[in-house]
Amino acid sequence: MQRFANGLRRPEIKGHKDTLLASAREGAHRFGRAYAVMYDLSGLPEGGVQSVVDDWTGLSARMQIENDSAYLRVNEKPLVSVWGVGFSDRGKPRAYTLEECRDLIAFLKDAGCSVMLGIPTYWREGTRDATDNPNLLEVLEMADILSPWTVGRYRNLETARSHAHRLWKPDREWCVARGIDYLPIAFPGFSWRNQNGGELNAIPRLKGAFFWEQVTSAKRMGSDMLYVAMFDEVDEGTAIFKVSDTPLVGDGVAFLDREGLPSDYYLTLAGEAGRLLRDERSLEEAQPSW
Fold first, then answer.
1. Is 229 in contact with 177 (CB distance < 8 Å)?
2. Is 203 found in the same domain as 69?
3. Are both 189 and 144 inside the same structural domain?
4. Are 144 and 190 contained in the same domain?
5. How does residue 133 score in pLDDT terms, banded at 50, 70 and 90?
6. Cis ω for the linkage preceding 38 (within 30 of 0)
7. At what angle do helices 209-220 and 265-277 cross, to 10 degrees?
8. b or e along 197-219 (b: 16 or more beta carbons within 10 Å of the residue's beta carbon)?
9. 68, 187, 222, 227: which is deepest, by most CB within 10 A?
10. Residues 137 and 190 grouped into a single domain
């Protein structure tokens, strides 16, 4: 459950986030699933990371997360994800500092948590979407899991394969050498059309082939886990939840159709990705059909 940290300082927004988290927790217990908290630092001002420290302290006390059987654990510790460490926006570091992030990671580790970090694509080089702060890699070595954000970084089957070879493979080797788990991202397609007027079908889904190429590329380079982005992110055209060919729309809103696929095809495809990562199906098998 993502908790965007820039809303934690407003009681009405924080109350809504608390309700959503409580619902996710109830659902996890009811249906035999796991849940975890991810803090997204995007939009925080300098000094704003302290709001995450305060929030986790309160959540842990109220919800007794360390004793919650449905809460996701890594290395037998509750997992907390912090997204947005080490990013540079248009060449400028974000307002909240890398030192704040270091302190937050140390706090969570001292609180008995495992920590996953959502980081920029070019984190090892310190270029493009990553800060050039020379202390970045030192901070990232504090994590249990690293997950570079790659949505929109490649646009077709060829560039997805190339990205896995050029970046995922050496990324993972760096992590393995330091005892850190590596979590690559796969996304089904992309469009900012309804958010900022971009191209409607900027990164085509190709009836699931684009997503499946990323899944198989991750498996080939040795990954045993994958972050699917995202379950419900309609504003970026990456949602994998059940969809309709006849959605309710407002003026100027446009959606792609399902390309003849079942409404829940991407949920099925994500499930098959899990089977592939668990060696319950082979790489030689074709993309699951419908």
1. no
2. no
3. no
4. no
5. very high
6. no
7. 10
8. eeeeeebbbebbebbbbbbbbbb
9. 187
10. no
| Residue 147 · residue 227 · CB < 8 Å | yes
Instruction: Examine residue 206 and state whether it is found in any structural domain, yes or no.
Output: yes
DSSP string, the chain: -EEEGGGTTSHHHHHHHHHHHHHHHHHHHHHT--B-EEEE-TTPPTTTTHHHHHHHHHHHHHH-GGG-TTB-EETTEEEEEEE-TTBEETTEE-SS-HHHHHHHHHHHHHTT-EEEEEE-TTTTTT-TTB---TTHHHHHTT-SEEEE--TTS--SHHHHHHHIIIIIHHHHHHHHHTT-EE--EE-S-B--HHHHS--TTSB--GGGHHHHHHHHHHHHTT-S--EES-SS-GGGT---S---SS----TT------TT--TTHHHHHHHHHHHHHTTSS-TTSPPP--
Q: What angle do CA 270, 82, 95 make, to 5 degrees?
A: 130
Residue 166 lies in a domain: no
Residues 202 and 140 in one domain: no
Name residue 73's beta-bridge partners: 78
> What is d(CA 283, CA 289) in angstroms, rounded to the nearest whole number?
15
Residue 238 has pLDDT above 90, yes or no: yes
Indicate the residue type of 126: G
Enclosing domain of residue 43: 1-149
pTM over 0.85: yes
Domain boundary among 149, 175, 193: 149
Residue 163 has pLDDT above 90, yes or no: yes
Alpha-carbon gap, residue 19 to 16, rounded angstroms: 5
* Short-list 90, 92, 9, CA closest to 47: 9
Q: Is residue 9 scored above 90 in pLDDT?
A: no
| 36 is a domain residue | yes
270: left (phi over 0), alpha (psi -120 to 50) or beta: alpha
**Which token pair is 66?**
């360390």
